[in-house]
Amino acid sequence: MPVLRALLRFFFRLLYNEFAWAYDWVSWSVSLGQWRAWQRTAIGRLRGRRVLEIAHGTGDLLLDLAALGFQPIGLDLSRAMGRQAARKLRRHGLELPLVRGRVQALPFADGAFPSLLATFPTEFIVDAEALAEFHRVVQPGGVLVAVPVAQITGPGRLDRLVAGLFHITGQSSTDWFAPVLERYAQAGFAARLETVALPRSLVTVLVAEKPWPRAAESG
C-alpha cells in the first residue's frame, strides 16, 4: 500500500509542523483516550535522573518526567512542536531545556545521558546515523527506551473499529521488529522487546541497553 503510506507520511508531516496545535487532540482521538497511558509505559524502564526525550512533541512526557524528579531535556526537529511544548511548560510554571536538532547530529557530548526516550517515533528510530548518535550520547550501562507501537484490544465496537484502522494503515504492525533488533545490535546495543498489557491495549516497548566496556584482560 505505497499510496496509503505516502499519504500517512504527508499527514504526519503536517501534524508535526503546520498542524502541531492539533497534535494532542488527534493523538487522544485515534487512541480512544489511551495515548498518555501508552507514553507512560516507558518511564519505569529509565535509568538515572538525566533523560533526553527525542522528538518531544507537545511536551506531555517532559511534564511527567519533571513531576517524578527526573531532569529531562527535550529535542525535536519541528519548530512548531518546540513552540507548543514551550507554551505547555510555561502554563505549568516550568522552564526545561528544549533543543532543536536532528537525531543524526545530536548536539550533546559523548555519554551525556543515562537514558534516552522516544515515544511513537518516526522512521528515525531505525536510521543508522541516528542509532550511531544514540549510542554515542548514552552512557555505558545506560538505556534507550522507545514505544514504537500499540494495539487496541478492547471489546467495544469503537475499539474494534479503530484497531481495524490501525491494522490497515500499519500503525500497529510488529512485522518490522526482528530487523530493528538486528540494527540495534549492529549499533552496539543489547536490545529487546517488552509487551505491556493495559486494560484495553497492548503496548510494545523497545529497550536498548548500551553495555559496559569489557574490562581489559590482565596479561
Tell me what you see in this structure.
Helix content is 38%, strand content 25%. Strands 3-2-1-4-5-7-6 form a seven-stranded mixed beta sheet, with helices on both faces. With 219 residues, the protein is of the alpha/beta class. The longest helix has 15 residues, at 2-16. Strand 4, helix 6 and strand 5 (138-152) form a beta-alpha-beta unit.
Draw up the topology in text:
Elements: H1 2-16, H2 23-30, H3 35-40, E1 50-54, H4 60-67, E2 71-76, H5 79-91, E3 98-100, E4 113-119, H6 128-137, E5 138-152, H7 157-169, H8 177-186, E6 190-198, E7 201-209
Parallel strand pairs: 1-2, 1-4, 2-3, 4-5
Antiparallel strand pairs: 5-7, 6-7
Helix content: 25-40%
**Beta-strand residue fraction:** 15-25%
Return Rg in Å: 18 Å
Number of helices: 8
What is the topology, as strand order, of the major beta sheet?
A: 3-2-1-4-5-7-6
Supply the helix-strand structural class: alpha/beta
- Uncertain segments are 165-173
Nearest-integer average pLDDT: 86
| DSSP strand count | 7
Largest sheet: 7 strands, mixed
Helices and strands, in order, run as HHHEHEHEEHEHHEE
Shape, principal axes of CA atoms: globular
Distance between the termini: 58 Å
